[in-house]
Amino acid sequence: MIRDTFARPLRNLRLSVTDRCNLRCAYCMPEEEYAWLPRADILTFEEVARLVDVFASLGVEKVRLTGGEPLLRKDLPRLVKMIAAEPRIRDLAITTNGILLAQEAQALRDAGIQRVTVSLDTLKPDRFRALTRRDAYQQVLEGIEAVSGMGWPGLKLDTVVMRGVNDDEIADLIEFARRMGAELRFIEYMDVGGATRWSMDQVVSRADILERLGERYGRIEVIVEESSAPADRFRLPDGLIFGIISSTTAPFCQTCDRSRLTADGQWLLCLYATAGIDLRKYLRDGTSNGELAGLIRSAWEGRRDRGAEERLLLKDRQPLVQIGELKAKPHLEMHTRGG
Ligand code: SAM
């Protein structure tokens, strides 16, 4: 197990398998047109699997497939099978918007995905259309119901809470998750790349969320657990468990064991990092696995990133990157680096 300068292990890898998405969520992809990564730069499944093996040799045991929308990557179950064949990866998960999930769920499960997280910000079809600029609410619902109906354990729903947009649905979403047998996690609206319309006054904080749920349900219990998971977990008086990912107002950099690999092989040590390490170049120039492991090890051992905590210290917090710079540097986009 290798550790960075704050003794954080390298345990978790988020793999963005494509930068493409079939939604245009206002908080992530507010533009209609984007500059996509060149096709020739996208890592092949063999290249991704090779990197996963190298990361596993350094201690990575959890992999999450993301994007963009990961289910847009053609033949994804084949990649899942290749990663699942690495015995050191003991947790293989996917984060999806759910649009293509109903048709892919069984193949994903058969291939080795253990846990599914679906992003769902609203239960109102009109609001869904306004927020995502696509008419896909029904498909998302069918995707969630498909996973739930399969009795597939570990289903999570992730909701970005925004003031004046969907903060009136907090309890409704909790009740929906209960019906689906899913654990809901509220995510504070983050000032990441892509969120060019972010402002602090739209953030509904963890404290706010707890207060509102407390008014509705009564005393909420904090679940105390040792974990590097991004969500803090809570229990309602009736026993229902939910989570809050408070990256904006109460970041958890101190326990962050995550790094990210973009679909074209840029390795990022922090969600807020402005530059990554180009692993594609090494994959394609004959560098051996041992040399790759050495490169990754020395980068991790020098890691000092604590991006979300640094953002918290800013007095006048504005969007991380302005739209002009994002267009010139697509690797700064959330949909490129994988949320
Ligand atoms: N397409 C997949 C999905 O929708 O889940 C995976 C990629 S998406 C970028 C991953 C997660 O990032 C989603 O749950 C999304 O809501 C979240 N996200 C994107 N922009 C965000 C922002 N500005 N603040 C908080 N979460 C954000």
Can you walk me through this structure?
The protein is of the alpha/beta class and 339 residues long. 33% of the residues lie in helices and 16% in strands. It is built from 12 helices and 12 strands. It has helices spanning 45-57, 76-84, 101-111, 125-132, 137-149, 170-180, 206-217, 279-284, 289-301, 307-313, 323-328, 334-337; strands spanning 12-16, 62-66, 91-96, 115-119, 156-161, 183-188, 221-222, 232-235, 241-245, 258-261, 266-268, 277-278. A 12-stranded mixed β-sheet has the order 7-8-9-6-5-4-3-2-1-10-11-12. A hairpin with a 4-residue loop joins strand 10 (258-261) and strand 11 (266-268). Helix 1 packs parallel to helix 2 and helix 2 runs parallel beside helix 3. The mean pLDDT is 96. The protein binds S-adenosylmethionine (SAM). S-adenosylmethionine (SAM) binds next to strand 3, strand 5 and helix 12.
Characteristic terms for this protein:
339 residues, alpha/beta, 12-stranded mixed sheet, 12 strands, globular, binds S-adenosylmethionine
SSE topology sketch:
Blueprint: E1 12-16, H1 45-57, E2 62-66, H2 76-84, E3 91-96, H3 101-111, E4 115-119, H4 125-132, H5 137-149, E5 156-161, H6 170-180, E6 183-188, H7 206-217, E7 221-222, E8 232-235, E9 241-245, E10 258-261, E11 266-268, E12 277-278, H8 279-284, H9 289-301, H10 307-313, H11 323-328, H12 334-337
Parallel strand pairs: 1-2, 1-10, 2-3, 3-4, 4-5, 5-6, 6-9
Antiparallel strand pairs: 7-8, 8-9, 10-11, 11-12
Helix pairs in contact: 1-2, 1-9, 2-3, 3-5
Q: Name the helicity range.
A: 25-40%
Indicate the overall shape: globular
Output the radius of gyration: 19 Å
Bound small molecules, by name, code or SMILES, are:
S-adenosylmethionine
How does the major sheet shape up?
Answer: 12 strands, mixed
Question: Ranges with pLDDT <50 over ≥5 residues?
Answer: none
Structural class: alpha/beta
**Straight-line N-to-C gap:** 25 Å
What is the ordering of alpha helices and beta strands?
A: EHEHEHEHHEHEHEEEEEEHHHHH
Mean pLDDT: 96
DSSP helix count? 12
